[in-house]
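[#protein-structures] MJ: dropping MFS transporter here for a structure pass
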Amino acid sequence: MGAALGLPLAALVVQYADWHAMFWVTAAPSTAGLLLTRWAVRESPVRSPGRFDTWGALGLAAGLVCLPLAVSQGGQWGWGSGPVLGLLADAVVVLAVWWRTQLRAEQPLVHLRLASGRRVALPHLTALLAGFAFYANSLVTAQLVRAPAESGYGLELSIVATGLCLLPNGVIMLALLPVSARVSTARGPRVTLTLGGAVMALGYAVRIVDSRELWVIVLGAAVVATGTTFAYSAPPTLILRAVPVEQTASANGVNVLMRTVGQSVSSAAVAAVLVRHTASAGGTEFRTLGGYRLAFALAGTVALVGCAVAPAIPSDTAPAPRSGGRGAGREGPAQETALEGS
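AK: finished. structure tokens for MFS transporter:
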């Protein structure tokens, strides 16, 4: 929701100020968020002493920089070029070493043994897929409506007008959050997740059929945003039901990370698709409509994969894992109610 609302606000800043100002503008709400969190969020009564895995964080960051960078620049640098192959090799080596060290660490950044179980791994996978499908919607829409008229489909909207086209997405996500929580309560989060993937795929089908009329573009983007609301709300609930109470923060942190990784991979993949589908007219270079439709088809396919994975997540009635420490265990109903009401 924050990303959906942030794009139109960012458009105002870019339109009327230097793009460097974005860093200062985002710093202000980030600081406010930290202060509000300290003031409003209560400390958990469950304590699990430990230390921060600095090397684990650095290794994960390095691996997640190399991989998307290689994918995003492969079209321009050449997939067989030295830099791209080197980045891909670095990503594989770094992440492999990181995985091995995390398994051996006493207090790892990510509890991989816990995360590798189906009840946790599959919600993480669906979060990655949902992040991919969501971000393609915003990224491609922003470029599509600003395409030049020489392209035959372009609307040549200003940056601010482009942001306004994306504004309904954030409003829809905010409005439908309580609805998604009610669906999860009534039918279970797996149903919510499946529904989200299906609706996202439907939105991309609309976008493939017609991406010339502004109202259809906005409608298709809104349908994708509707599915995103459901797809984003379900994985945290599934994870809370699957992990010991002292591991909920770590497990949900990984889930948010997987969503972000999905967005990063989406950005790189869309860029790789569009860079190979360009044309020119009247001295103006632009992306072809076929390239945009291919990007929509890719995102819609990813959404359908997430829709297919959701029913494979083990049933909520399966016993939750327990930790051997004092105060560990499962406080499922309280955790789930707190999450769904947020």
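MJ: nice. The chain is about 75% helix and 0% strand.
AK: one more thing. Residues 159-187 form the longest helix (29 residues).
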